[in-house]
Specification:
alpha/beta; Rossmann fold; Helicase, Ruva Protein, domain 3; 5-stranded parallel sheet; 10 helices; 45% helix; P-loop_NTPase; DnaA regulatory inactivator Hda
Length: 231
């Protein structure tokens, strides 16, 4: 069966920037490494594994690279895995930065494994930087191509770990502040104890509350949230 037609453009999320990313102290080194790579002054080959926030960071790297006048390409494999990898990667070795998101999805897909292996080898002869994001460490990828597995071991590996409870509440307040909304400690704790506690659910709820508060022209207080969410 033929591959679907390639999308005309892969647009980055305008909100996915480093300034808009909550960073606990233990992730400061990781972000510094990513910023340096994006600007062209850091490591050429980076493998980022772990949990929430990977997609945001890869797109932030592309934004930063482009702001510095560099050419970057973001490939979200969750959306593009059914497309022809050869077409998607054409000329990728001449980019300044190539980013693969959800890299674990290529495991067992021979066309993708071969295309990325060939692309990687071409990139070694240029100044292109490679940033790979995966939900698992490279040692846990069930790749069919041993040569690609060995190539991945040469990438500098970093792990993005889940935020703990206090960090998730701080992240909620950080995201609110970026929107110009004041969320007190009491309000953050009230929200946190009454919804799903993963970061994405908290941020999605913040979007809803922000929209409702604008409509009602009211601040995010506990009484307002109780009324708006019927809690």
């Amino acid at each position: 069966m033929a591959s679907p037609q390639l999308p005309l453009a892969l647009k980055l999320d305008t909100e996915a920037t480093f300034d808009n990313f909550y960073t606990p102290e233990r992730h400061r080194l990781l972000l510094n490494q990513l910023k340096q790579q994006a600007s062209g002054s850091g490591e050429k080959l980076i493998y980022l594994c772990g949990s929430g926030g990977r997609s945001h960071l890869l797109q932030a790297c592309c934004h930063l690279a482009e702001a510095a006048g560099r050419y970057a390409r973001y490939i979200p494999l969750a959306e593009l895995i059914d497309f022809d990898p050869e077409a998607l990667l054409e000329g990728a070795e001449y980019l300044d930065l190539l980013c693969f998101d959800d890299f674990q999805l290529i495991a067992g897909r021979g066309n993708w494994e071969r295309a990325i292996f060939n692309c990687y080898n071409k990139m070694l002869a240029t100044d292109a930087c490679l940033l790979v994001s995966s939900s698992v460490a490279h040692s846990q990828l069930a790749l069919e191509l041993p040569d690609l597995q060995s190539r991945l071991q040469s990438l500098s590996s970093y792990r993005l770990s889940e935020l703990d409870e206090s960090e998730r509440m701080a992240a909620l307040q950080f995201k609110a502040k970026m929107r110009g909304i004041l969320v007190s400690d009491a309000v953050a704790e009230f929200i946190y104890t009454r919804c799903q506690r993963d970061a994405k659910s908290l941020f999605d709820l913040l979007n809803v509350l922000d929209h409702l508060s604008l409509i009602e022209q009211r601040k995010l207080t506990i009484p307002f949230i109780k009324e708006a969410m019927d809690w």
